[in-house]
Specification:
The protein is mostly helical and about 160 residues long. Among the domains are: about 45-90, no CATH class; about 105-159. It is built from 7 helices and no strands. The longest helix has about 50 residues, at about 105-159.
Length: about 160
């Protein structure tokens, strides 16, 4: 949202070309138009913090575990995920493993996928050319019939 101000004719006459060319936009106006306006920034947690929260959550008596989550503004899925990472030894890993359900392809599988796409493209090209060839043959057939008709007509008129 860009705000404009009204000026009097006398004030407008006193403005320099630099004043006219430079619009005044406040920082609040540009932040309001940002794509994530009104949303909190994504949080990231250190490995030590995750370990501390999992230990505190596990040590909390039944009924007060929710208080730990509310205080830290977390969900139980955070603790569940962090506990699984601690158990598997991947909590401090710089790069997590593949996402569940995703499969990593071998070089051979990647090549097969590329070749299948290429075959699909080539089959479409062949089909398109077959259609064009059939149309050209039909046009030649019609043209041949037209020439034969004109020859027959001219031979009748010549006799």
């Amino acid at each position: 949202m860009i705000m404009t101000t009204m000026t009097t004719p006398a004030a407008a006459a006193a403005m320099t070309p630099a004043d006219i060319a430079t619009p005044s936009v406040s920082i609040a106006d540009t932040a309001e138009d940002a794509p994530r306006a009104g949303r909190s920034a994504r949080r990231s947690f250190t490995t030590e913090y995750k370990r501390k929260i999992v230990a505190e959550y596990d040590a909390a008596p039944t009924g007060s575990k929710g208080a730990v989550l509310r205080r830290e503004r977390l969900y139980d899925s955070h603790v569940t995920e962090w506990r699984a990472q601690i158990a598997s030894g991947t909590l401090g890993a710089s790069r997590p493993g593949p996402r569940p359900g995703s499969t990593s392809r071998t070089a051979e599988q990647t090549e097969i996928a590329r070749l299948r796409k290429q075959v699909t493209v080539l089959e479409k090209t062949v089909t398109d050319r077959d259609v064009k060839l059939a149309q050209a043959r039909e046009a030649l057939d019609v043209l041949g019939k037209g020439v034969a008709f004109l020859e027959a007509l001219s031979s009748r008129n010549a006799s």
